[in-house]
């Protein structure tokens, strides 16, 4: 007779755990399917699934997409209750983006919850690498999502032997997995939209091309322009800091030879361009086209208010939830196979148009 109670699930967990401990189910081996386990042990599928999720939460087994559940090696198993860590370091001078970081952390928390993992949030701002490592060690963290471009901290975490994934950033001098927005695709989407509306005098308005996001997004814009046979005039390629954005945007839009469209693939820079246009009496959508950038999860709460009561321009968006899921999946795979080559995983973009 099938027993669908929690007691049956607990008993099955103990049975599988014992089989793994005694080597009858060795590390690296895949468990039989849920259906096979249910039939063999005369249990309901949901009872088997509950037991497998319990073993996964404690770090004894791990899900491999389209393959099933695989037994983790003993030294790679997560101690019951030990957390994964999310290490965040706000870039200097970008405190106004805390809403975005808060929303991103919330999505990582939800992704961890879906896996039954505790999540330890660690602020690295103002801390030495040793202080951060000490906090991770004291919590017995088994893996770390690193939302920072601090090479010294990244290398210290890697040397600790912890499974680590870099998110929302990429460094060519760091040998670790990276999960970030597909800025190249975002640039292509922006140019494709503007070109389809007949724009040929298109401006790039962004930070200096000396970090991963700028390089990635500008690369997509340059490729899109080249594909459309559109030249990027030197005077329309404007590099700016956040502090100088308002002034540089007014300079860009004040002349008679101003661009008819601006690509500003940072939310604050898109807002600065929109504000400068309004000051100069230019109406978005009529006198000037603008393409901005936003995280899906804060589009309504943080991004839309940047444009006050005005028109929200076409916007390239990305999902923090997709980033969190991809990062944890890669971290789990890295724990199973530490020798895998480092990968750069890109989160797909879409162009959001408002009526």
List keywords for this structure.
3 domains; 12 helices; alpha/beta; Rossmann fold; six-stranded parallel beta sheet; Arc Repressor Mutant, subunit A; 355 residues; 17% strand; elongated
Structure in a nutshell:
Helices cover 42% and strands 17% of the residues.
Characterise the protein shown here.
- By secondary structure, the protein is α/β, with parallel strands linked by helices.
- The chain has 3 domains: 6-76, Arc Repressor Mutant, subunit A (Orthogonal Bundle); 84-181 and 320-349, 3-Layer(aba) Sandwich (Rossmann fold); 183-318, Response regulator (Rossmann fold, 3-Layer(aba) Sandwich).
- Helices cover 42% and strands 17% of the residues.
- The chain has 12 helices and 14 strands.
- It has helices spanning 6-21, 34-41, 45-57, 98-115, 129-138, 151-159, 183-196, 212-227, 245-254, 267-279, 299-303, 320-336, and strands at residues 61-64, 68-71, 84-88, 119-123, 143-147, 163-167, 177-181, 202-206, 237-239, 261-263, 289-295, 315-318, 344-347, 350-352.
- The strands form 3 sheets. The protein has a 6-stranded parallel sheet with strand order 4-3-5-6-7-13, sandwiched between helices. A 6-stranded mixed sheet has the order 9-8-10-11-12-14, with helices on both faces. It has a two-stranded antiparallel ribbon with strand order 1-2.
- Helix 11 (299-303) links the parallel strand 11 and strand 12 (315-318).
- Helix 1 crosses helix 3 (45-57), helix 4 packs across helix 12 and helix 7 (183-196) runs parallel beside helix 8 (212-227).
- The N and C termini lie far apart (58 Å).
């Amino acid at each position: 007779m099938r027993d669908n109670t929690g007691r049956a699930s607990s008993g099955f967990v103990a049975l599988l755990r014992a089989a793994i401990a005694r080597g009858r189910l060795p590390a690296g081996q895949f468990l039989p399917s849920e259906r096979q386990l249910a039939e063999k042990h005369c249990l309901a599928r949901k009872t088997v699934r509950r037991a497998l999720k319990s073993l996964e939460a404690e770090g004894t087994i791990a899900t491999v997409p389209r393959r099933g559940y695989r037994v983790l090696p003993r030294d790679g198993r997560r101690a019951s209750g030990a957390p994964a860590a999310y290490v965040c370091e706000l870039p200097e001078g970008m405190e106004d983006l805390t809403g975005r970081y808060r929303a991103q952390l919330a999505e990582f928390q939800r992704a961890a919850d879906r896996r039954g993992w505790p999540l330890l949030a660690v602020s690295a701002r103002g801390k030495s690498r040793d202080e951060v490592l000490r906090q991770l060690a004291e919590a017995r963290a088994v893996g770390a999502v690193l939302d920072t471009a601090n090479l010294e901290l990244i290398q210290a975490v890697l040397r600790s032997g912890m499974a680590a994934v870099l998110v929302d950033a990429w460094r060519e001098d760091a040998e670790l997995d990276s999960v970030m927005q597909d800025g190249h695709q975002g640039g292509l989407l922006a140019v494709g939209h503007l070109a389809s509306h007949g724009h040929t005098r298109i401006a790039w308005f962004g930070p200096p091309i000396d970090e991963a996001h700028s390089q990635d997004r500008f690369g997509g814009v340059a490729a899109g322009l080249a594909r459309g046979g559109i030249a990027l005039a030197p005077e329309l390629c404007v590099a700016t800091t956040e502090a100088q954005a308002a002034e540089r945007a007014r300079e860009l839009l004040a002349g008679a030879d101003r661009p008819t469209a601006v690509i500003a693939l940072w939310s604050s820079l898109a807002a600065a361009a929109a504000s400068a246009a309004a000051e100069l009496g230019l109406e978005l959508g009529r006198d000037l086209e603008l393409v901005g950038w936003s995280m899906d999860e804060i589009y309504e709460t943080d991004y839309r208010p940047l444009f006050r009561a005005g028109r929200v321009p076409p916007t390239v968006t990305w999902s923090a939830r997709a980033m969190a899921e991809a990062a944890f999946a890669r971290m789990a795979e890295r724990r199973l196979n530490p020798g895998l080559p480092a990968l750069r995983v890109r989160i797909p973009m879409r162009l959001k148009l408002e009526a």
